[in-house]
Fold:
Amino acid sequence: MSGRRPVTPIVSSVARMLEVFDVEPAGNRQFRGVSDGGARRVVDGSQLLAQAIVACSKTFPHHTARSAHAVFLRVVDDERTLRFDVDVLHEGRTFAGAVVSVVQGERRCASVTVLMDVEHPDVIRHGAEMPPVCPPLDAVPCAMPMEGRELRLDGVHDPDDPEDVGPPILDAWLHYSSVPQDPALAKALIAHFTGHLSISTTMRPHRGVGTSMAHDDLSTGVMAISVTFHEPVGWDGWLLYHHESVQVGRGMAFVRGQVFTEEGKLLASFSQDGMIRAFTPDASERTKSVAERL
Structure:
């Protein structure tokens, strides 16, 4: 498990990411996975969250993932295999739960606590309404390369630009060329994008600060993500990811968000704890290569 897998040129795509999410059994309550870090080599925490959701869905085949909370404390190398150890806390007729340890080599890199459930009929019901946003085809196309995925932003031309200033809100329309029929993979796909734009959302009101500065002038990172699924996950068309940064200070940012279908149905809610800190004048991390940080 600590060895490197063969490095071959892989184009990031939705189809490839679904293969990555679909972790394979590797023993008693253990699963094996690979990664796709794109050109960065460093793995997104939201990929680990997605894989942990699938690992628990395979561990509890009669339950469905209701919520997951992930904490990311070590950098993960996309050229090395991962092991997902599922520690079952409880498995009942209605609820089940587990803590998934994400291990690379001998290092525990992340921990994901997952709540599983057997769906029940409503006793009462209400849900948040979708915020007023422009239709997806009127939104601004945004370059975030991945074959099979289209991203458009409501009124924002470049979420990384330090001079593109606005309120700490970011509405992103997302369209996938294909939607997985497997509920666990569909939830993994929804969870995967929860980590992508929250730090950009936080920086928007602050002129002169943007995610284009990340890792060179600013130290940034996703430290934790929580996601809750409200409905059986299935959609056809666009998804809206609504991000709102409610607090930043003391080097940390908190963003909450919601995922809606194009018709306005609330599928999921999420939150992210992100790190935004200045490098110290003599910080060696500023000049370290990716390989040295792993």
Summary: The first strand starts at residue 24 and ends at 27. Residues 1-9 have pLDDT under 50 and may be disordered. The chain is about 15% helix and 35% strand.
